[in-house]
Amino acid sequence: MPSNSVHSRNTLRQTAHSAFYNTLMALMRNKFSLCGLIILGIAILLSVLAPWISPQNPYDLSQLDIMDGRLKPGSASMSGMIYWLGTDDQGRDLLSAMLYGMRTSLLVGVSSAVIALTIGAVLGLISAWAGGKTDALIMRIVDIQLSFPPILIALILLAVLGQGVDKIILALVVTQWAYYARTVRGSALLERRRSYVDAARSMALSNPRILLRHILPNCLPPLIVVATMRIAYAIMLEATLSFLGIGLPVTEPSLGLLIANGFDYLMSGDYWISVFPGITLLVLIVAINLVGDALRDILNPRNKE
Q1: Distances from the Cα of 107 to the Cα of 39, 163, 298, angstroms
Q2: Residues near 84 by Cβ (< 8 Å), separated by ≥ 6?
Q3: What Cα–Cα distance (Å) separates residue 36 from each residue in 21, 230, 250, 269, 286?
Q4: Three-state SS across 36-81?
Q5: What residues form the membrane-spanning segments (predicted)?
């Protein structure tokens, strides 16, 4: 019996590796998704290395000089430091602020998506498996959640909780978990009617094992697609909240906050304060959406022969 269990785990692991490899190869054969993967890889690498490659730490107020505020791209400070992308109104090196801001955006987007996915997947599985009143209760909560605009919920939560990375992650989790719950429930309802679920029940396997080891892996393809799209939306929502001044504090610049800082100076000719972070945010979101669109086509069972 133990040998059969080990063989089953090895087979499952090999199948997962094969599916991951085939999906990655399919993404690389698509020129648009390949472009998105390259951009994402560069963005992640720059974000991770930001503390070491940034000319300045934009969070350290002692390194800022208000006299260097709103310098044009390519200008030099009194100390000889060159601001390749210029500075904002606080004297921050815009290149450094963008690297740290991109790091914050990716951290917030991925973290909120992972936490929301975990909560939504668990509730979706419980809803599909239990059925009856439990299913009705969870789905009514999901319907109520989805009936409100996400930005409105995030605004209310941040107005109560205050500013901070942890606060905005919590707000994004609250606004996103329902999408994952509905997606998992729909897939799990189909999977629970499969013969392998009946076989698992006949072997007296526990409900958590059936759900987590058998049903959940078969719900992953649509879940991965939704997660990719929601990461892009979370980054965009964080930027929107920071632009409105209720997301991250001024001492922790994000891409949205950098855009907001330069908004008042657009008409005066200091375009770089808003334009460069705006282009970075746009490219990042487009890259994630390119990968998400390709994953949707690759993992769609109707496209498989």
Answers
A1: 16, 16, 26
A2: 73, 74, 95
A3: 18, 16, 30, 32, 8
A4: HHHHHHHHHHHHHCHHHHCCCCCCCHHHCCHHHCCCCCCEECCCCC
A5: 32-53, 106-129, 141-162, 271-292
Distance CA 29, CA 197 (A): 35
Taking residues 164-175, what's their average pLDDT? 92
Over the stretch 80-101, which tens digit does the pLDDT of each residue have? Answer: 788 999 988 888 899 999 999 9
Reported as half-sphere exposure (CB side, CA atoms, 13 A), residue 255 has a value of 28
Residues 109-131 have a mean pLDDT of 93
Tokens of 231: 């990461």
Would you state the pLDDT for residue 134? 93
pTM score, whole prediction? 0.86
- For residue 275 the two structure tokens come to 């334009």
SS3 category, 265: coil
- Other Cβ atoms within 10 Å of 265 Cβ, number: 16
Q: Which residues pair with 82 in a beta bridge?
A: 76
Q: Do residues 88 and 97 lie in contact, with contact meaning Cβ atoms separated by under 8 Å?
A: yes
Q: Which residue matches tokens 């490219």?
A: 283
How many angstroms separate the first and last alpha carbons of the chain? 36
Q: How is residue 126 written in tokens? A: 């419980």
Give me the helices (H) in the chain, please. 2-29, 31-48, 50-53, 94-130, 132-147, 150-161, 165-191, 195-202, 207-209, 216-243, 255-263, 272-299
Of all residues in the chain, what percent carry a pLDDT higher than 90? 43
- Residues 6+ positions from 297 with CB-CB distance below 8 Å: 303
pLDDT digits over 230-276, tens only? 999 999 999 999 888 888 877 777 888 888 888 888 888 888 999 99
Written as one string, the DSSP assignment of 124-161 is HHHHHHH-HHHHHHHHHHHHHHHHS-HHHHHHHHHHHH
